[in-house]
Specification:
By secondary structure, the protein is α/β, with parallel strands linked by helices. It has two domains: 105 residues, Glucose-6-phosphate isomerase like protein, domain 1 (Rossmann fold, 3-Layer(aba) Sandwich), CATH 3.40.50; 160 residues, Rossmann fold. The chain is built from twelve helices and seven strands. The strands form two sheets. The protein has a five-stranded parallel beta sheet, sandwiched between helices. Helix 4 runs parallel beside helix 9 and helix 4 packs antiparallel against helix 12.
Length: 302
Amino acid sequence: MPLPIQQDISGCFGTSVGLTEDELRPYLQRCEVARAGFADELNQPRFSAYAIARREDDLSALASIAEDWRGRFSRIVLFGTGGSSLGARALAVLAKEGGPKLSVHDNLDPDVMASVLVPDKLADTGFLAISKSGGTSEILAQTLTAITALRKTLGQAALKNHFLFISEPGDGVLRRLSRDIGARILDHDPNIGGRFSVLSLVGLLPALMLGLDADAVRHGARAVLDNTLQKSDCLPAVGAALQVILRDKGFGQSVLLAYGDSFADFTLWYRQLWAESLGKNGQGTTPVNALGPIDQHSQLQL
């Protein structure tokens, strides 16, 4: 099926950048080798984050949990960092008015935590804590602080109904904490890295809680996946080849400049995905997220 997005790289050729189509061609050939290998090994565990786009058997159970929370809470506080929160934030901007508000806190700012844990808000608040390993210190600190505040305000018995955890199977600290307070914990797929988890329950459960169509999200991801598997000149391959050759030519930054305010969280997610995935062992380029036109009058001046 045709993709509802376009990619124009014509501006990369010519004197402004110094790139020619002949120079790009061998990079496209290298990408084709990688794309073909990806297609052959899609069902391997290391590619679970992509293959999940085709999964359909898990969303009904998540929808039931989400419906319960939508009926009980007007505010959902998500404790997560990096991929455990940024994907959900990017999706949350699509939510319409009338449902719970998603409040995402991935920093240990005491003033923010104090405002989140104001006693008169806690009865209508559900807390979703996400850590793949179950041992992320920042998430544990936030969760323990929230448990203390809620216990003081609503009592010990209320904890199990106001907290929900997501962590990989095992005996991580978050899993032990869930047992201590009697709260439910859902399994994070151990084959899916936290930063790539938006199509799993990590990203889609918060989306469902906000009233979004998780099937549509998966459907869109599946369209991109199928296009990538079927076409050698797919957009991801062309974009990847272009990024690598520009890096080799000395371009050290990759800029995502968005012109819609609703894309602000998406640019943050891009920055985290790009830096954490490619910024290993001195490789990759520095991702710069920007929002125009305000950043045309600031960052673009450099």
